[in-house]
Amino acid sequence: MPSASTTIVSKCTICPNQKSTLKSLKFSVSDLPMLSCQYIQKGVLLSRPPYSIDNLITLLKHSLSITLTHFPPLAGRLITDPNGHVHILCNDAGVEFVQAKAGRLFIDNILSPLDVPDCFKEFFTFDNTLSYSGHFKPLAAVQVTELADGVFIGCTVNHAVTDGTSFWHFFNTFAEICKGAKKISNSPDFSRTTVFNSPAVLKFPSGGPKATFSGDEPLRERIFHFSREAIQKLKSRANEHDPSEILGKQANDSWKVVNLDTNGNGNGNCNGKVNPVNTTLKTNTAAQISSFQSLSAQLWRSVTRARKLPNSRTTTFRMAVNCRHRLEPKLDPYYFGNAIQSIPTVASVGELLSRELSYGAELLHRNVVAHGDGTVRKGIAAWEDEPRLFPLGNFDGASITMGSSPRFPMYDNDFGWGLPLAVRSGRANKFDGKISAFPGREGNGSVDLEVVLAPETMDGLESDGEFMQYVSANMRATTH
Question: Which residue windows are coiled coil (predicted)?
Answer without folding.
Answer: none
